[in-house]
Design goal:
This protein is an alpha/beta fold. It folds into two domains: 159 residues, Lyase, Ornithine Decarboxylase, Chain A, domain 1 (Beta Barrel), CATH 2.40.37; 171 residues, Alpha-Beta Barrel (TIM Barrel). It contains twelve helices and 21 strands. The strands form three sheets. Strands 4, 14, 15, 16, 17, 18, 19, 20 and 21 form a nine-stranded mixed β-sheet that branches. An eight-stranded parallel beta barrel has the order 5-6-7-8-9-11-12-13, surrounded by four helices. The protein has a three-stranded antiparallel β-sheet with strand order 1-2-3. A hairpin with a 4-residue loop joins strand 14 and strand 15. The protein is globular. The termini are far apart. The model has no long low-confidence stretch (mean pLDDT 95). The protein binds pyridoxal-5'-phosphate and lysine (LYS). Lysine binds next to helix 11.
């Protein structure tokens, strides 16, 4: 079921007309659907019911407090990569004891904050990090729960910028050295070695790389166990892809079932999932208004009021996201356009060569923008950041106000 759909050729978010939201809250704005978030999160959780598990939503995909609050209310765990994300989880009512802390560069201050908050586990990426966590835990007279992220050297067959499980990537510990590093971790007094972790990349559209990585990690768990270290959980990371155009990734329940099959003979090994994109991407759209249509010598441009600072995926990864009219009932001449923003970069585009029937002042919706949309936005060109709205049935909640131009324009005289 798609909660962003046309009714009488008008785009709706659940029960609310997108044009009405744009009229009230202005553009560009992100609109999220609560029902979609819940449906996607539950797809993971329900599919894993038969096995001990924890779904830890990857906060980096979308850290809006309203979004986190929807997840917290369902009992979700969270995968974080900074102290800032932990603060947001706590502010949104999330349970710190269900938080896993990933990332290669945790600072002492972040480790201290997470230890005091009582998180579930640190996913550790190097020996130097083990030493740092041990040191901070000792100073606080606490024991830090840890997993080690292992790099299984599996090709995720995704965009090179978002592939993380190859030897050439900065993430995790090489498979060959893993047992040795586990022994080292177990020798440190203020660490509790609880689990193992792996994450091979994002936007994976095939199941096989996940299975290959899992099999390698299960093998490793046996080796670690033979070395006298018993692990109680396996964090399989995130990375399940979504449909942006014609990709056919496995559905969350297929993905979870395929992984569960491999651990059926390990009923005490808790599985941790870290999905981000699969929950949020298609739970959000970015709405933008056409400012001008411009005829170039070789191309037609639709200059819109959203830009690469609002949604950087097309510029950064050449990502394709569907762009559709909010009102599909307008009489317009159809042309092929590049949809571009006002930023002073040739790379500032949201879509290229799109067949659209539009005119100035029309509204467009950029689909699949709920993940890695607002969280990767910036103030580049001193542009204000978009508002974020959450639709819940027929109610619309402003879950983050648009930044105000005045705040940017006030300026202070910083020179003596
Ligand atoms: C460690 C870790 N976990 C989870 C995720 C979430 O990934 P995705 O949004 O692809 O599910 C990422 C990002 O790729 C990650 O680096
Ligand atoms: N930001 C990326 C995904 C990176 C995943 C984070 N580990 C995207 O938009 O596709």
């Amino acid at each position: 079921m798609d909660f962003f759909n046309y009714k009488d050729q008008q785009l709706f978010a659940e029960d609310v007309s997108v044009a009405e939201i744009a009229a009230t809250h202005n553009t560009p704005c992100y609109i999220y659907s609560r029902a979609t978030i819940e449906r996607h999160w539950l797809a993971f959780d329900n599919a894993a019911k038969s096995h001990p598990h924890l779904v830890c939503y990857a906060v980096k995909a979308n850290s809006n407090l309203g979004v986190l609050n929807v997840m917290a209310k369902m009992g979700s765990g969270f995968d974080i990569v900074s102290g800032g994300e932990l603060a947001r989880v706590i502010q949104a009512g999330g349970d710190p004891s269900k938080v896993v802390f990933s990332g290669v560069g945790k600072t002492e201050a972040e480790i201290e904050y997470a230890l005091e908050a009582g998180i579930y586990c640190f996913n550790v990426e190097s020996e130097a990090e083990l030493d740092r966590i041990n040191k901070v835990a000792k100073e606080l007279e606490l024991i830090a729960p840890i997993s080690i992220r292992v790099n299984p050297d599996v090709d995720a067959k995704t965009h090179p910028y978002i592939s993380t499980g190859l030897k050439a990537n900065k993430f995790g510990i090489e498979r060959e050295r893993a047992v040795e590093v586990y022994k080292y971790a177990a020798s440190l007094d203020n660490l509790n070695v609880k689990g193992i972790d792996c994450h091979i990349g994002s936007q994976l559209t095939e199941i096989q790389p996940f299975i290959d990585a899992l099999d390698k990690v299960l093998n490793l768990i046996d080796e670690i166990s033979a070395a006298g270290i018993q692990l109680s959980h396996l964090d399989v990371g995130g990375g399940l892809g979504v449909t942006y155009s014609d990709e056919t990734p496995p559905q969350p329940d297929e993905y979870v079932s395929a992984l569960l099959e491999r651990v059926a003979d390990r009923p005490n090994l808790k599985l941790v999932f870290e999905p981000g994109r699969a929950i949020m991407a298609n739970a959000g759209i970015l709405v933008t208004k056409v400012e001008f249509l411009k005829q170039g010598e070789e191309k037609n441009f639709a200059i819109v009021d959203a830009a690469m600072n609002d949604l950087i995926r097309p510029s950064l990864y050449s990502a394709w996201q569907n762009i559709i009219p909010v009102d599909a009932n307008l009489e317009r001449e159809s042309k092929v356009y590049d949809i571009v923003g006002p930023i002073c970069e040739t790379g500032d585009f949201l879509g290229k060569d799109r067949d659209l029937a539009i005119a100035a002042d029309d509204l467009l919706a950029i689909r699949s923008s709920g993940a890695y949309g607002f969280t990767m936005s910036s103030n580049y060109n001193s542009r204000v950041r978009a508002a974020e709205l959450m639709v819940d049935g027929d109610a619309v909640h402003l879950v983050r106000e648009r930044e105000q131009l005045e705040d940017l324009w006030k300026g202070e005289n910083l020179l003596p």
